[in-house]
Every structure is written in structure tokens, then in C-alpha cells.
Amino acid sequence: MLTTHPFDTPDEFGDKLREECGVFGVSGAEGAAALVALGLHALQHRGQEAAGITSWDGHNFHTHRAMGHVAGNFDRDEVIRALAGTVACGHVRYSTTGETALRNVQPLYAELANGGFAIAHNGNISNAMHLRRELIRRGSIFQSTSDTETIIHLVATSGYRDLLDRFIDALKQVEGAYSLICMTPEGMIACRDPLGIRPLVMGKLEDSYIFASETVALDVVGASYVRDVEPGELVIVKDGELRSIRPFTAIAPRPCIFEWVYFSRPDSIAQDRSVYTVRKGIGAELAIESPVEADLVIPVPDSGVPAAIGYAQQSGIPFELGIIRSHYVGRTFIQPSAEVRRLGVKLKHNANRALIQGKRIILVDDSIVRGTTSLKIVEMMREAGAAEVHMRIASPPTTHSCFYGVDTPERSKLLAAKHNVAQMAEFIKADSLAFVSIDGLYRALGEAKRGEVLPRYCDACFTGDYPTDLTDHDEQASSQLALLDHPA
Ligand code: AMP
């Protein structure tokens, strides 16, 4: 979910593009909130700045939302006990700090004509600002700056009577990516947008149903994986019974390819494939496409590890841990400022000097976004005495921003948007740099190549081929053009 509209320039609310989320829901288990807290722990990598849980005890909804990690907020007995009931859902997210952010922390909750309604959202709605302006014009009063709240207002103002009809009516008006877990006094609804951009899986734990962004969250509570919630599917759990409906016109799914490259945890299974195995496969493709003579293959931890193993196995060059990572620092990419990001890189990684000294090394990472991480790591390897530093990236160049729920900066800040590979190599000060090709990435996912007409995945960050309209983005661009045409 997105806290404002998808542009990196500060908007009227002073927020920026930031979203990375995970959702988890349990229907029909004693102490549901405790299970949700466990599930959110396993999804913490999807968003580390805020977490929330909402429960339903048969009479009332209870919510606890807080800035910070799941641990620290949901490991106290009194917090979990207050979230009474057998149905609960939760959310982890990236956000800004302070009060403005707290009101955006999910699940969001509202009292509607049909009763209470809680919603947890992973993804991003690409026409949220457009809809929001129209809803405000018609009298809606927004409590947050979150795109997710737009869905609540569309449900609230729908002309249909029944809650499910209202919900479907709302979803038919939104464009973009949404994997949702919603709660009403009647039950739980889990659904995925027609393209299935963000993941959502279904599991079973004794008599209860579980929904989660990734299978690792099923593992942590001991639930068994049943199947993925299908793109365009709504799964409704009511009185312990499960029902599935598909209210949208069927279209070819385009799940996010970046989940495979970076976002999902390697121990997750998605579309019947192990994320870890796919990442190793990407590394192997990279070794075939871009070989180089060297002494060691070294992963940039942790995101580059599986691809580096694949590269090493394919090339026959030994895999070694040449960079040691401190596990007590958060992810660098999602720190608020460039300065903190820069410091974060130094805090997080250290060279294994004894190993590096005098060696020709191949560094493997999953992606280059701004180039900050790669530059620091290459410099660190040289300081540690590396003879040559070759960088290999287990994704194609990230040339376009994501409008579907992955936190990427605006296009102008993406290193690959304005530079070719040779210029990027110079920027990161590597002796050579290569990215896996888009077809190589598809091959690692079991496809012969990227289908030009109907690609199997949303790969817009690498190709600019966005599978939906980008209404907010286009409206913003045209209003900027209008300003240029008529300067004040
Ligand atoms: P940068 O330093 O801006 O080039 O960022 C690249 C690093 O950030 C890589 O090591 C990736 O593992 C990581 N990364 C890429 N995309 C994301 C994302 N959306 N959120 C957090 N980290 C990311």
C-alpha cells in the first residue's frame, strides 16, 4: 500500500513513495492474533517500519498498530490478549515516522453501513489519487493519506446493498496491484487483483484458514500450504466454510518478477517453485551469459547469496564469503535519507580481508537501484586488497519505477535509467559489470524467453511495459506539462 500518490516529489501531505508490505490473516483459530503476530514475524522483510493487527471477537473489533518491528510491538502478552477473537489479520509496512505515519499504519478500519470493515493491503493502486479527488469532491472525509483508504470509501459509497457486492464494485474501479485481506463481522475476504501482481497464498492449520503474502509465514505457524489465491479471485471464509468467486473479466496474469529477484524470502515457494532455486538459476544464467576469469565468487549478503551460489556452481569458480554482514542493522535501501543509506552500507558490511587480498573477485548482487550499495562494496573490496573486482547482477538493469508496491525511487534516481552498462561500471568503479538479460531471467523461471506479446510476468521495472494504466502518474505528468506551458 502506498501512503500518497506515486511520485517521489513531496506532495501536499509531505510524504514520498514508500511501500513494501506483507499481509497475514487467520480465520477460525483460538488466539488468532498470536498466530498473526508469528506470521508477521516471517514477513518482516517485506516492511520494517510499522506493523498492525486487527481481531474480531464476535462482538467487537480490536486493533493495535504501531511504528517499528513486529518484535517489540507484538511480543507482550497484554497486547496479544487485548486482540481477542478467533479471526484476525495483520500487516507489516514501510512508512515515515510520526503521527502522520501512524494513521496510515494498517489494517485500516472503518464503520460502514454494513458494520465494521478492516483491510490490510499489499500492493499499490495506480489511480488512487484520481479516485480520492473525486470521492472528496462528493463528500468523503479521508483519515489517512493511504491509497488503501480509497477502497474503504469506494465500498462505503457504493450503490449496492450487500457488502460483498459493494466490495466488488469498489475493486472494479481501482487499477494497479492489490493483495487484500479484509474482515467484516460476517467473515474474512482474501483477494488478489486480476493480474495477480502481488502474491497471496492460502494455508490450513487444523480447522482454520490462513492467508499470507508468502509461504514462509505459513511455515512459521505450522500451517500447510493449500494453494495460491488466484489472480482475480476472492476467497471468502464464513462460519468455517470457504467460497471462491471470480468477479472480474479473466485476463492473463502478470505476477511481479521482482518478487523472484529480491523481494520474497528465498525459503518461500511461489507458483510451485522455490524462490531459492530460481535465484540460483538466475546466477547460473548470468555465468553462462557473462563469464569472467577470476579466483572467487563473492555474494553481496544477503540478497546476492543464492545467485552467487548458482554463478559459482555453473562457472566452477569457488564460492566464498568475502563480505560479512552484521545482522543487527536494517536493510539499507529503505532508510529515509541518502546520507543514512550511505552510512547504513558501511555499518552493514565488512570485507573479509584475509580472503580478498590479491584475489580477482566476482561480486554478485541481485540488483542495482541507485548504485550506492555497489559503489561502496566495490570500494570496500579494493581497500581490502582485491586485484580485480567484477560485478555481476542477477537482474536486468532497473530502468523504470515500480507503481505496484515495490519501493523504487523516481526514475531519474535509477542509475540504469540514464546510463548504459559501461557508464554504470565506471560509476561503481568495477573492472567489469554485467546484468542478466531479460530472457535469461525468464529462462531461470522456466520460460524459453520473454514473450513479446504476452509476457508471463510484470517486468515493468526492467522493460517499462506496465500492465495497467497509470492514471495518477499520467495526470501528474500532464499537469506538470500544463505548468510548463503556462508558467506563473
Ligand atoms: P542501491 O544501493 O540503490 O543500488 O540498491 C541496491 C541494493 O538494494 C541491492 O543490494 C538490493 O539487494 C537492494 N534492493 C533492491 N530493491 C530493493 C527494494 N525495493 N527494497 C529494498 N532493497 C532493495
Write the layout of secondary structure elements.
Blueprint: E1 21-27, H1 32-42, E2 50-56, E3 61-67, H2 77-82, E4 87-93, H3 99-102, E5 108-112, E6 115-125, H4 128-137, H5 147-157, H6 163-173, E7 176-184, E8 187-192, E9 201-205, E10 208-212, H7 216-221, E11 224-228, E12 234-238, E13 241-245, H8 258-263, E14 269-270, E15 273-274, H9 275-289, E16 296-299, H10 305-315, E17 323-325, H11 338-348, E18 349-351, H12 353-356, E19 360-365, H13 372-383, E20 388-393, H14 415-418, H15 421-428, E21 432-435, H16 438-444, H17 460-463, H18 471-485
Parallel strand pairs: 16-19, 19-20, 20-21
Antiparallel strand pairs: 1-4, 1-10, 2-3, 2-4, 5-6, 6-7, 7-8, 8-12, 9-10, 9-11, 12-13, 14-15, 17-18
This protein binds adenosine monophosphate.
Catalytic activity: 5-phospho-beta-D-ribosylamine + L-glutamate + diphosphate = 5-phospho-alpha-D-ribose 1-diphosphate + L-glutamine + H2O
InterPro entries: GATase_2_dom (IPR017932), Ntn_hydrolases_N (IPR029055), PRTase-like (IPR029057), PRTase_dom (IPR000836), PurF (IPR005854), PurF_N (IPR035584)
Enzyme class: transferase
